[in-house]
Amino acid sequence: xxxxxxxxxxxxxxxxxxxxxxxxxxxxxxxxxxxxxxxxxxxxxxxxxxxxxxxxxxxxxxxxxxxxxxxxxxxxxxxxxxxxxxxxxxxxxxxxxxxxxxxxxxxxxxxxxxxxxxxxxxxxxxxxxxxxxxxxxxxxxxxxxxxxxxxxxxxxxxxxxxxxxxxxxxxxxxxxxxxxxxxxxxxxxxxxxxxxxxxxxxxxxxxxxxxxxxxxxxxxxxxxxxxxxxxxxxxxxxxxxxxxxxxxxxxxxxxxxxxxxxxxxxxxxxxxxxxxxxxxxxxxxxxxxxxxxxxxxxxxxxxxxxxxxxxxxxxxxxxxxxxxxxxxxxxxxxxxxxxxxxxxxxxxxxxxxxxxxxxxxxxxxx
Length: 366
Ligand SMILES: *Cc1c(COP(=O)(O)O)cnc(C)c1O
Description:
By secondary structure, the protein is of the alpha/beta class. It contains eleven helices and 15 strands.
């Protein structure tokens, strides 16, 4: 059996069956049923947010909040290219122009010292990414946004359950998007959410995800379909029961990796952030001046059935589909380019054994 970069957390088969049993009685499979309502309430509580809206996946959650913000069409949104395709695609698909800001060398989140020089009279929002679960410099982003009257939407897909100075990652900016994809720390098979404080956004976000339907004969908004179904919500209810235990198990794995790889010449690990309670979502390792290149390490691991991931490579600003974009080109974001060509995320999931971590580290160090 190969060791994959990740493995989905799941409840026991019996626990899930117990959870979905009543769906055979109610025959209510989707459209904001009982499970949907229960998961929403439990997540609001767990993430400490006034409001949360559930979606069938994280990407549509991001598109829906971008639309709900009602920003001026064609406006520019400042973001980073060191992210999953979804972040940049959501901006473009919603009719905005992504403007790529570089990342910082410490935690690979947006370099706040470079945001203001990118602001023009067309800028409408900042869309930073809490990449690998590392929290962005939220104070500075908040200051810049207030000064220039910009909205802030966080891509918090990696940051489920993370807190900074005791404040939940769900509470920064105007809104945050979470992904509950199978590969994330918390999953609903596929799924996602938007968290926010504004009472006014509740109605519009609920409208957009269900064709704008407010009643049997009332369609108030040009919506689409992005509803989370009852089976997804049931998986979420089960997984949420075990989330703290899963994160604690991930922490053990990460601590063992650190023990083995810390201080090795040419290997750079992400520093732990001050004031942050982490979720141990990913374990990125940068090979910079190491005896072997990132690609050689990747190939060597693969030849022993260990599947690491070049995450994030390529940068979104060097995607084929964006080559016509005036802001494209990885040379415009040199730090992101440098990291993207040298980073590997190593296998990490709750049930990865310390023996397996040793095997992975042995191969790298050999
Ligand atoms: C996973 C992910 C998304 C998209 O979430 P899905 O639930 O897969 O649609 C968006 N942004 C980032 C950074 C992600 O890792």
